[in-house]
Specification:
By secondary structure, the protein is of the alpha+beta class. Helices cover about 40% and strands about 15% of the residues. Helix 4 (about 70-85) links the parallel strand 1 (about 60-65) and strand 2 (about 95-100).
Length: about 180
């Protein structure tokens, strides 16, 4: 009968190689799963997130990120957003809204989310001051949140805009088939 050699038929060098290979694979798996902090930054943010309505009515500036678990760009930005959230925890609320959760469909439609990650910026009164589409660096997030906290205009970066004063009817007339955050056609 042929098959794999039993451990007793392996040479000492083969056993050592097998041991180091197993240890190497275990270390790689450990690191891929987040190391000692097994909860990924995006998951940490989502778990700690306030309800959007609570955040928008508590008198503090708020950043709402519209995201999805499968979104690589959302995951890429998550460590920077988590660091920003920790740095501004007493001054600003960071809220995550998963676009794949039907619970948030009305909110997604209200804020016309058509791509992710989308950050919506609100002042302490709950009024939207602007939005950002795409990945932001930690430095950009710091500048954006500092402006919100200080009640200043948002800095101008590519993909960051203020709120349009066009009425909804004008927007719908120019785009009769709106694209949602889950459309990638």
């Amino acid at each position: 009968m042929t098959g794999s050699p039993s451990p007793s038929t392996l040479s000492p060098n083969q056993r050592l190689l097998l041991l180091f290979t197993a240890l190497g694979l275990a270390i790689v798996l450990f690191l891929l799963r987040g190391g000692l902090n097994a909860e990924a930054p995006l998951d940490q943010l989502a778990r700690r997130s306030l309800d959007p309505e609570t955040a928008l009515n508590n008198g503090r500036p708020t950043v709402i990120e519209f995201y999805a678990d499968w979104c690589q760009a959302c995951r890429e930005m998550a460590p920077a957003l988590l660091a920003t959230e920790r740095e501004t925890a007493t001054q600003l609320d960071v809220v995550l809204v998963n676009v794949d959760n039907p619970r948030w469909q009305e909110l997604i439609e209200r804020y016309k989310v058509n791509g992710i990650p989308q950050l919506n910026f609100f002042d302490g009164g709950g009024d939207m001051q602007g939005l950002s589409l795409g990945v932001r660096s930690h430095e950009q997030l710091q500048q954006l949140t500092d402006a919100l906290i200080q009640n200043q205009p948002l800095p101008q970066f590519a993909g960051v805009g203020t709120i349009s004063s066009l009425p909804d009817s004008t927007l719908k007339a120019n785009n009769p088939d709106p694209v949602g955050p889950r459309n990638h056609s």
